[in-house]
Write a structure and sequence with these properties.
The chain contains 3 helices and 12 strands. By secondary structure, the chain is of the alpha+beta class.
Amino acid sequence: MVANAGVSIPISSAESNFLTSLESPLSAITGGCRCGQIRYALSMDTLPPSYACHCLDCQTWTGVAFSQSCILPADALTVTGEAVIYELEGTSGRVSRQRICPTCHTRVYNTNSGHGFAVLRAGTLDRSHELDCVAHMWTRRKQAWLVIPPGIPTWHEAPAMNELAAALGLE
């Protein structure tokens, strides 16, 4: 509720989260789904670097030209709110566990079997406008109109994990 001249006006949880974020330090790294049911905080000093994936799966899943994500240690992510988990088994046999808001259906993050990282959807960060996109993969599926700046690491398909980790500064 917001008080206005002695009148209480109901506000949505998303609006409440926005107002709360205004009271938080600017350095806080937080985010969440569209409706505010799922919120998270990152135990990190700086925003994580992000990368773009132009593969057909990401284009189909997001409905846009590419997905933008951040890889971070899973234990750096603290989540509140209940998520629906969608499991997807890849051709390698590894399982990707997608965390999705059951109300607004925002895909917030996923974890994959075989490593201790979380893959965070960059657009769910409250400060997503401050992110640096430092790498692009699956550029053979990239939309023709999209121009990648010179000097940014790119891969025609999926890079080796050590190459992506180096580009993201995770080594």
